[in-house]
Amino acid sequence: MSHDLRNPLTSILGYVELSQTAAQNTPDAKIARYLDVVASSGQRMLDMVEDVLAYATIGGDVRPAPLSLSALISDVMKDLDASLEASGASVDCDDLSFNAGPVQMRVLLQNLIHNAVAYARPGVSAVIRVTGHRTDEGVALQVIDTGKGISEPDRQRVLGLAICARIVAAVGGRLEIGPGAGHGTVITINLGIGS
Question: 65-191 belongs to which homologous superfamily?
Answer without folding.
Answer: Histidine kinase-like ATPase, C-terminal domain (3.30.565.10)
